[in-house]
Amino acid sequence: MKLLIERRQPASGSSDWVWPTNTHRVLRQIFSRRSIDSPEELERNLARLRPVNQFTSLGRAVDLLCKHRSQRVVIVGDFDADGATSTALMYLCLKKLSFSKVEFFLPDRFKLGYGLTAETVDRVCQGPAAERPSLLITVDNGITSIDGVAAARAQGVDVLITDHHLPGERTPDANAIVNPNIQGDTFSGKCLAGVGVVFYLLAALGQRLGEPGLVASHLDLVALGTVADLVPLDQSNRILIYEGLRRIQAGRCRPGLRALCRVAKIQLRSVTSSSLGFKIAPRLNAAGRLDDMTIGVRCLVAENEDEALGLAHQLDRLNHERRDIERRMRAQAEELVDAEYALGVDGSTRIVCLFRHDWHEGVVGLIASKIKERYHRPVIAFAPNKPGILKGSGRSVPGFHLRDALANVDGAQPGLIERFGGHAMAAGLTLRSSALKSFQIAMESEAQARMNPEMLSGRILTDGELGLGDFNVEIATILKDAGPWGQGFPEPCFDGVFNVINQRIVGDAHLKMTLKPVDGNCLLDAIAWNRTLGEWDSGARVHVVYRLEVNEFFKTPAVQIMVDHIEMAC
What we know:
Layout: E1 4-7, H1 25-31, H2 58-67, E2 72-76, H3 81-96, E3 101-105, H4 118-124, E4 135-139, H5 146-154, E5 158-162, E6 176-178, H6 194-208, H7 219-228, H8 235-249, H9 255-263, H10 273-290, H11 294-301, H12 305-340, E7 352-355, H13 364-375, E8 379-384, E9 389-395, H14 402-412, E10 417-422, E11 426-432, H15 436-450, E12 459-462, H16 473-481, E13 494-506, E14 510-517, E15 524-528, E16 541-551, E17 558-568
Parallel strand pairs: 1-12, 2-3, 2-4, 4-5, 5-6, 7-8, 15-17
Antiparallel strand pairs: 8-9, 9-11, 10-11, 13-14, 13-16, 14-15, 16-17
Helix pairs in contact: 2-6, 3-6, 3-7, 3-11, 4-5, 6-7, 7-8, 7-10, 9-11, 9-12, 10-12, 11-12, 12-13, 14-15
């Protein structure tokens, strides 16, 4: 589908902002078009973080942790990169704070499901009563685990929930809950990832126990988890990522992270938020999608370089397997959409629900994301879980709050959905196989009521044009260093009209081009991923949406245009 290319508009009042004298004019152009209220919000030092004492639920949680310092504590994590980094961070810091009996447990997503289920509690608490943990800590999960918390409390086990997901109408009867999104918590940092919540809790615990700087030495893990979870990058999240990237680039990071960079062929000094999100996180996530995220956590907590590298190679092999599965499922999903849905811009169908009996449960979230990007609709993809049960993963478009839509359907038809949870843009659910058609009808009705046709048109926002003198390594470097960029604070991209001088296919299916601005004489190297020859001839006039990057492949760094979108110019 053709995309609508629009240019971001400067924020109201940005023309009156007082910029630091060293702010480059291109950065002023970009920052004035981001969701900030003043240049002060761009400061990236730790002193600008929201204070720990604003997080009203931390005190009770710290008291609970101190109570169990000499007893058996088990951390129950989620099986994605945010969950893995949260688990690793909690484990490493509690060990250094002299918690004597700390363990971690990552539920098998295929057998135990998501979160602190009653089955997970039974697994963790099995054996003689005297050997049970005295405290369970959830990280990046737990806020919807009503039954699991009840099962733990019934066995005399205390529960501390740390989570960032939106709660349901009821919250679990835990001994303490740390979640910026629960009702009554006045902490303004509502966008924290699970690992960010753990960071704040450990900062408060470190202050209590005389180790105030402990958690800051693990900001490499915080940066990775925050980037991987695609949370909006408000100032606090940008600071956490920026400081974590500084540690990684200086080589002051976990052996496991160094090993993951090595297998991904990334130099530590060149690591960016993009490389964390697109190269490191997928390798970590592959364990949770296909196997056991325990592999990923073991890699992150490893102290031995050889052990870390061996585990990183395991993760790399799993990621190659994941890519093969994803490629097959994506082709099947596109066939299903073309065969079953009418997706015109008139909005005849507003939400897509897909299912195949042979799909892999761990990959459906990726498929939902890819299909959403192609067709500009909310998408929920399902795979078999247990006999008669489906697991679904959904991705949405701006303006359609996916978790709220699921809550509305659940409220209107109690029992139709077995379980659900998530955020505005991503959510997961469990569904009986027999209920799939009814669910699809209910969600389509919800989408029809809450979406207008404009929301179904794909669009791409740019920061306007670059001047002819801005296509250079200096500007590309300035843009890279001004990050971190990510969700809600997008990496700068520009648009303009160019002539295609020549083109060829490189690698598997990537289009390498030489472009010339229509009103200039400079020749620019450009690459478009997953494009083919034949869409236009050399000499064609094209409209390109692009980012600037520094190509360090050759001895002398050069600027390169990374093409996000290309179409024939009007």
